[in-house]
Amino acid sequence: MVLCAAPAYLAERGHPRCAGELVAPHEAVFYARDGQVSTWRFHVDDGGPARTIDVTLPSRLRCDSAEVLLEAAIGGMGLARLPAWLAADALAAGTLVRVFDEPRPFGFALHVIRARSRYLPLKTRVVVDWLAEHLPPLLAAR
Questions:
Q1: How many Cα atoms within 13 Å fall on the side-chain side of residue 79?
Q2: Is the pTM of this model over 0.85?
Q3: Residues of the chain with pLDDT under 70
Q4: Domain residue spans in the chain?
Q5: pLDDT tens-digit series, residues 126-141
Q6: Is omega for the bond preceding 136 within 30 degrees of 0, making it cis?
């Protein structure tokens, strides 16, 4: 996941340098499913014991489409925490900028869903093993 925003938004509201600076006047565009906002969790690297903090900002938009959040962020509606692979083209084009580098970025678990069976066919095992090895680095590299 990458925290990003439009350059114009950061010029207007200021550019936070760490999770602790994610306070007013900042606003966000949040992913929300069934009305439940997904708060942002950050690892904190301040020289002390390992810990995390949760951040929830006032939101200008809540929706369950990462693509809509991407477009809202590009349009300057607020800070967005997006999958790195989804934001990659906008970051490369400069329509979004990374707000700050996280000491240890958060991601989400990936799951393979298959029919319940007593036996796992070899071809399925091969695909699952390949995905487990190759997909995480591909998603993180963007």
A1: 30
A2: no
A3: 106-108, 138-142
A4: 2-98, 110-142
A5: 998 988 888 777 666 5
A6: no
